[in-house]
Amino acid sequence: MAACLPSYIEHEMLGTLTVPRFADVQAAAGAIAPHVLRTPLLRSAALDAIAGGPVWLKCENLQTTGSFKLRGAFNALLALSAEQRARGVVAYSTGNHGQAIAWAARQLGLRATIVMPVDAPKNKVARALAQGAQVVHYDREKESREDIGMRLLLDTGGTLVPPGDHPQVLAAQGTVALEALQDLPAGVAATLGLFAAPCGGGGLMAGCCLALDALSPHARRVAVEPAAFDDTVRSLASGRRETNAAGARTLCDALQAATPAELPFAINQPLLSEAVAVTDDEVARAMRFALEELHLLVEPGGSVALAALLAGRLRLDGRSAVVVLSGGNVDMALLQSVIARTDA
Prior knowledge:
4-stranded parallel β-sheet; alpha/beta; about 15% strand; Rossmann fold
């Protein structure tokens, strides 16, 4: 069992950020319930046979806006004061967080500006624009999205809602695990062997670790990353936040964080059991498996935990598992290339 949060993390602050606890996950669940879907847990006999144990898939690819990010977006925006809402919000995102902020802002009547890389999937950019958000592009190899975000805050007076280093965002991402544990058959949550989820900046896994530590403390908690962006794997080994190589590439556009976000890593370092990485070929095969065997459309970044399971990097030893499919926003050109890649 992973260690509990150290007292200085559990009770104090990290810089200017309050570190959320399980009570914050519970509060987020109540706040966002009217605004997000309670996504299903699905089973597959074919997957169980491959994995060597019962597997429940938490299908956040079926969430409104196509990813778990809507949870954190709504929780953060709902927590704003009337004065903050009037000034609008600024977010930076490779796609899914931006879509989620744009959607939540429109539902709540807020202005939203989203900073997105020029190479972000066109479908994710289009959906943010369709919700009325302003999109500001940047070159991720030459410019800093954080610096651009800060300039926009000065110009607009808005509130920054980052994808990882935000207590309300992180707490709400933990509702993915909270729902899954609540919806498992009686007795399974208490004996759960494994919980695995995709990891970019680490916010999803950090929020989920808070719920798992409280409700299923014996379950192994595994973060899964693309091989070219294995910063959490290396950070857990070194004990400090590591950075990915400049110019690294992966199919998983949603998981291209440069380094673990500070607040999520403060939680993940003591509470994660391990982190593993998968190749793009393994991700492509997982996407195809999801299409053909599960009848689910899952984007590359949303498929990495499934890919790790299919590739034998996650052992069940007959115990049960929850695997998160974190998003389903696939660019059609990319999907065609994945199908062609797995035909070879």
